[in-house]
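User: tokens in, sequence out, please.
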């Protein structure tokens, strides 16, 4: 696999949405836009009862924002547009009327932690360590912060946001509610995700839709909030501190 992609397949009423990027499944703007639209479309597809969100490859679930794109941001408007891509994905997941099951096979960084946090039920391997690295490059997890805080709680979110250099093990993330179950291998994870998702498909779709609405109560302002957060990141990415940091990723 060398070319980025977003795909959707349907099996036994489960819609499997998969994204991939050769740079450790980082997320450039075009992939973010396609991912948000694919999730929205799956939410209205009558052939799909439950969604599984996954990434390609065996090692990293998602490396977060594309550093290649971050380096090339030269004005606040462009910065806002880029970070709004993560807002669009999280809001698409939030407003999707179907349960989204996260399948996290490996390490997850920055925006990837936000995507995992925006799933409704998240299963992972024991290799799925997480890190919020944004502060290390002078930005901050502003856009994904509300989703991470909602899942982990303010204390845990603050801890990993401030300790921006450290990976926190999958067991830590499970103890704080991000992951529901951990598995020894990707094979075991895939078997469990398939069984769990297909069992959910036997439930009343209307009941699941109503439950999801209840679970996400209190987030109705996120359409505006996450864009406001994108503006903050779009401004900070232009700072001398961040520009100097990003030179190391060229």
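Assistant: Sequence out:
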């Amino acid at each position: 696999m060398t070319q980025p992609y977003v795909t959707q397949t349907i099996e036994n009423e489960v819609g499997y949405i998969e994204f991939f990027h050769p740079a450790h499944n980082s997320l450039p703007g075009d992939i973010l836009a396609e991912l948000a639209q694919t999730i929205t479309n799956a939410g209205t597809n009558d052939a799909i009862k439950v969604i599984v969100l996954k990434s390609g490859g065996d090692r990293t679930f998602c490396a977060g924002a594309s550093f290649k794109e971050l380096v090339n941001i030269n004005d606040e408007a462009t910065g806002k547009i880029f970070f709004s891509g993560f807002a669009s994905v999280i809001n698409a997941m939030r407003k999707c009327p179907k349960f989204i099951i996260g399948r996290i096979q490996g390490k997850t960084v920055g925006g990837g932690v936000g995507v995992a946090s925006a799933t409704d039920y998240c299963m992972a391997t024991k290799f799925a360590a997480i890190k919020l690295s944004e502060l290390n490059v002078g930005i901050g997890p502003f856009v994904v912060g509300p989703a991470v805080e909602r899942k982990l709680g303010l204390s845990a979110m603050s801890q990993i946001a401030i300790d921006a250099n450290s990976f926190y093990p999958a067991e830590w993330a499970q103890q704080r509610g991000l992951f529901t179950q951990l598995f020894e291998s990707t094979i075991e994870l895939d078997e469990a995700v398939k069984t769990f998702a297909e069992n959910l498909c036997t439930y009343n779709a209307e009941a699941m839709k109503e439950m999801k609405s209840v679970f996400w109560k209190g987030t109705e302002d996120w359409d505006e909030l996450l864009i406001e957060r994108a503006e903050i990141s779009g401004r900070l990415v232009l700072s001398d501190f961040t520009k100097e940091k990003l030179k190391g990723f060229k």
